[in-house]
Design a protein that fits this description.
The protein has about 160 residues and is of the alpha/beta class. It has a single domain, classed as Rossmann fold (3-Layer(aba) Sandwich). The chain is about 40% helix and about 15% strand. Strands 2-3-1-4-5 form a five-stranded parallel sheet, with helices on both faces. The mean pLDDT is about 90.
Length: about 160
């Protein structure tokens, strides 16, 4: 059975999906915007105002999630309120993965170190607390990442995934 994880930015979703064949990072960019590329670079994030929104968004994203849900042990998803509300409405089980309290500066540094542009970093820093609080308010199980910890080690620590 698949574990769907709504993961906070910079927790290591993409890295984990590259390291384990049964883990998939369902990036939202190619569903959210009308673009012609299969690989989404972190440098693109923060330039969304230059892209055209896909008229099928977010239904196309939810449909893809349901289509691939039997193909993986873990699927990481885009953690926005309207996506999570739709999962709640459809009664699709998921968990939320967020940093523990007081780790904002650590996560801003993670965004910088992975190559996100200044626009993304400024927006991320400005919305960090609101986004984290929204995720914590979801009526689902939470995974809290400790300082210096990434999602793969948090899942192993909690015995939710063995790799």
């Amino acid at each position: 059975m698949v574990m769907i994880i709504a993961g906070f930015p910079c927790i290591g979703k993409t890295t984990m999906s590259k390291n384990y064949k049964d883990v998939f990072d369902l990036s939202s960019t190619k569903f959210h915007y009308l673009i012609n590329c299969n690989s989404i670079d972190e440098k693109l994030k923060g330039h969304e105002n230059e892209l055209t929104i896909n008229p099928n968004w977010p239904q196309n994203y939810i449909e893809e999630l349901l289509t691939i849900s039997n193909d993986y042990s873990i699927i990481f998803i885009f953690a926005r309120d309207y996506i999570l509300e739709e999962l709640n409405r459809l009664k699709i089980d998921y968990v939320v993965a967020v940093p523990e309290d007081n780790l904002k500066q650590e996560y801003v540094l993670r965004a910088k170190s992975r190559g996100n542009n200044d626009d993304f970093i400024k927006g991320f820093e400005a919305r960090y607390d609101k986004w984290r609080n929204m995720m914590i308010s979801q009526p689902v199980k939470k995974i809290y990442l400790k300082s210096g910890e990434f999602i793969d080690s948090a899942l192993k620590r909690l015995k939710l995934y063995g790799g």
